[in-house]
């Protein structure tokens, strides 16, 4: 293997980690919502799309012509999408106790509503987003890395670590974990389960917005952008272990790297197929996912 091949391989791996970070953040949204409510939210892709618009419209100057710096637009998008999450949690709350089929139909239907609201509000045509960082690649050891991709990886890592610390150290985080483990016992101990569910749902929506805003300068922003990412985020959620926070991270990164390697060294035509085939093979031997599924007791 010559030096050029090694550089291409490393560049492919970094790109896979970047796109995998995007999938991991979306998968974390699935996991947070599943852990708290036992809800498989197939509207997560649409929530990711809406969150992207919530932040990028400020950065692009689409709100009263007011253009704000990218970091501020990033925070605005997250906060607005978390607010949307609080509203959606109240809508989804009755679905959590219904049959799985009704639950899926409800979340898919709401996803279509969000998609059409985006078209009505911002139009069906998409737009490219200028990167807040220079487009000149950074060369490290012969590997060319886009600054925006490095930003995506770095900020995603901070969010993942921050979420893990929050759930393990913060008082509300511990309450959320307790409510996710056993709702009846947590409620009997005075933990406001509905409140922890709402916070979990809002965090999941905030993570989806963060993923979209970070990826916006790399992808094309449009109302249809949520479908593919939502599907792959769900695949990462299942691959890592449904409801598992570490599993969502691992599943997203594995899925992203598999996709990048198959596109770079096999054929872009087989990218989606190869990644999903590997996922099916893994689940044949580990039905609970790579890390392990979290059992959710629906009430």
- Mean of the pLDDT scores? 88
Sheet with the most strands: spatial strand order: 1-2
CATH architectural name: Orthogonal Bundle
- What's the number of extended β-strand segments? 2
User: What is the CATH third-level topology name?
Assistant: ABC transporter involved in vitamin B12 uptake, BtuC
> What is the 3D shape?
globular
Count of folded domains: 1
Number of helices: 11
The arrangement of helices and strands along the chain is HHHHEEHHHHHHH
Rg calculated over all Cα atoms = 19 Å
* Helix share bin: over 70%
Main beta-sheet strand count, sense and barrel state: 2 strands, antiparallel
The level 1 CATH classification is Mainly Alpha
First-last Cα distance? 56 Å
**Poorly predicted regions:** none
Q: Which structural category do the helix and sheet elements fall into?
A: mainly alpha
Work out the strand percent: under 5%
How do you describe this structure in short?
This protein has 299 residues and is mainly α. The chain has helices at residues 3-37, 44-59, 70-92, 100-122, 147-169, 171-181, 183-188, 193-215, 226-240, 245-265, 271-285, and strands at 138-140, 143-145. The chain is globular, with a radius of gyration of 19 Å.
Description:
The protein is mainly α and 299 residues long. It has a single domain, classed as ABC transporter involved in vitamin B12 uptake, BtuC, CATH 1.10.3470. It contains eleven helices and two strands. Strands 1-2 form a two-stranded antiparallel ribbon. It starts with a helix and ends in a 14-residue tail after the last helix.
């Amino acid at each position: 293997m010559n030096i050029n091949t090694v550089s291409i391989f490393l560049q492919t791996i970094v790109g896979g980690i970047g796109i995998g970070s995007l999938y991991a953040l979306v998968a974390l949204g699935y996991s947070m919502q599943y852990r708290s409510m036992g809800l498989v939210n197939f509207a997560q892709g649409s929530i990711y799309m809406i969150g992207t618009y919530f932040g990028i419209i400020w950065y692009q100057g689409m709100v009263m012509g007011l253009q704000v710096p990218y970091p501020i637009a990033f925070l605005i998008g997250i906060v607005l999408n978390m607010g949307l999450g609080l509203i959606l949690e109240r809508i989804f709350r009755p679905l959590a106790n219904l049959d799985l089929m009704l639950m899926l139909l409800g979340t898919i239907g709401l996803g279509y509503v969000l998609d059409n609201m985006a078209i009505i509000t911002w139009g069906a045509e998409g737009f490219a987003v200028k990167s807040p960082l220079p487009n000149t690649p950074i060369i490290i050891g012969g590997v060319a890395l886009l600054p925006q991709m490095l930003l995506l990886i770095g900020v995603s890592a901070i969010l993942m670590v921050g979420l893990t610390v929050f759930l393990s150290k913060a008082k509300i985080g511990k309450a959320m974990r307790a409510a996710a483990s056993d709702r009846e016992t947590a409620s009997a101990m005075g933990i406001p389960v509905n409140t922890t569910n709402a916070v979990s749902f809002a965090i999941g929506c905030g993570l989806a917005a963060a993923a979209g805003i970070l990826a916006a300068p790399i992808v094309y922003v449009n109302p249809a952008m949520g479908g593919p990412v939502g599907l792959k985020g769900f695949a990462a959620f299942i691959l890592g272990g449904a409801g598992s926070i570490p599993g969502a991270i691992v599943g997203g990164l594995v899925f992203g790297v598999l996709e990048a390697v198959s596109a770079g060294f096999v054929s872009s035509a087989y990218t989606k197929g190869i990644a999903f085939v590997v996922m099916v093979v893994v689940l044949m031997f580990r039905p609970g996912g790579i890390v392990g599924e979290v059992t959710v007791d629906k009430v």
